Amino acid sequence: MTPILIQNARVLGGDPQDILIDDGVIVALGAGLRPEGEHSSVDATGLIALPGLVDLHTHLREPGREDAETVETGTKAAARGGFTAVHAMANTDPVADTAGVVEQVWRLGREAGHADVRPVGAVTIGLKGERLAELGAMAESAAGVRVFSDDGLCVHDAQLMRRALEYVKAFDGVIAQHAQEPRLTEGAQMNEGELSGRLGLRGWPCVAEEAIVARDVLLAAHVGSRVHICHLSTKGSVEIVRLAKERGLPVTAEVTPHHLLLTDELVAGYDPRYKVNPPLRTAEDVAALREALADGTIDIVATDHAPHPVEAKDCEWDAAAFGMLGLETALSVVQHTMVDTGLLDWAGVADRLSFAPARIGRCDTGDVPHGRPVAAGEPANLTLVDPSTTTTIDPSTSASLSRNTPYEGMKLPGTVVATFLRGRPTHSITAGTTGGHA
Ligand SMILES: NC(=O)N[C@@H](CC(=O)O)C(=O)O
Ligand SMILES: [Zn+2]
Ligand SMILES: [Zn+2]
């Protein structure tokens, strides 16, 4: 590959600089670079350069639901969203609960080549919540699993959760908990509140999440092992995590783009596009989540990209599947809710969407590290963003196999202009291909 000179990019939102990439590595960074020899140039005037984004929570659906998404299509959507690495959730069919399945997913990611796929291992066999899966074998496999989760379901048995935390401590793993007390959410369809009563939909109380968050930070502290809370959605959960961090407990947390932007009022039209787990909450919760992401109480944004085929969403509310697309719109939603509101600068975005998720997933070191500083000697995993654009979201242009975006028709700021994975463009907008993305 000939060297690439990216000119005038605002690295992490700072002053314009040139970035010279050769052989997959950033070899020089500075103003007015004039490399000798053959190279190609990219004019990045007005663009922000970020470290390649890292998603700690993606559903790629392969194996088993290749009608909803495949590793190929999901990672293509990831590249278009500016991601160079994604953690693929274990709720596939078969479940990713053995070294064999996680290695298969990891290998599919390598073959597709759009983004590095870091498989998440299931905590319990078949996600049944009964017996621990072979966590050690998945950690030692070629996939090098460090994140374990029964996501979609909660590890609700306290003793199993304790054992899982003890087990992963040996290899510095982390349990990513889908915090949902199942007995408190039987048949639940939306946030519990005045609106759920009015709409006649079974409510999903905040305490169902908060009870598990509180229990698990205490368990993690007791064991001295790391717990990560998936898709935090309530003000009360924020308060618990804040208190836990003040006490120095080993907890990290994520918020999804949709919980930063959307509220339960959208459910009033019974449109299943807004059906998601955990449910959309109130404006007060949204404000608390934004504030917590800004002050670092919530460590990261994770997409929870959850593709579903048309028939699972184009139906009555009660029958519809939970979940929303997220990879291609994440950065735009974060710009809209956090940057354009003055809550976070671009360096903060780099932290919440790249540095911190890579650290939590322990993929900031090793053979193919992510979430590294934009600096000479580092792998050229880069995302170029044009923050000055506005796009009307059009699901038909998505790289995902599914169409269940909640943002259809919305105007959102920012466009990912190019993504580089170890110096190779995995996404780039050339003249004529700009426009809608979902
Ligand atoms: N978020 C969702 O609503 N759905 C996810 C499962 C999950 O993340 O809990 C899915 O797998 O579809
Ligand atoms: Zn979940
Ligand atoms: Zn999920």
Automatic annotation (TrEMBL):
Keyword Chloroplast: no
Matches recorded under InterPro entries: DHOase, DHOase/Allantoinase_Hydrolase, DHOase_cat, Dihydroorotase_CS, Metal-dep_hydrolase_composite, Metal_Hydrolase
Active site: 304
Assigned protein family: Belongs to the metallo-dependent hydrolases superfamily. DHOase family. Class I DHOase subfamily.
The protein's name: Dihydroorotase
A GO-annotated cellular component: cytoplasm
The organism of origin for this protein: Jiangella mangrovi
Statement: the UniProt record of this protein carries the keyword Metal-binding: yes
Task performed by this protein: Catalyzes the reversible cyclization of carbamoyl aspartate to dihydroorotate.
Required cofactor names: Zn(2+)
Residues the entry annotates as binding Zn(2+) 2: 151, 178, 231
Cofactor binding note of this UniProt entry: Binds 2 Zn(2+) ions per subunit.
Residue ranges constituting the Dihydroorotase catalytic domain according to the UniProt record: 48-236
Lineage: Bacteria, Bacillati, Actinomycetota, Actinomycetes, Jiangellales
Binding locations of substrate: 59-61, 91, 277, 308, 322-323
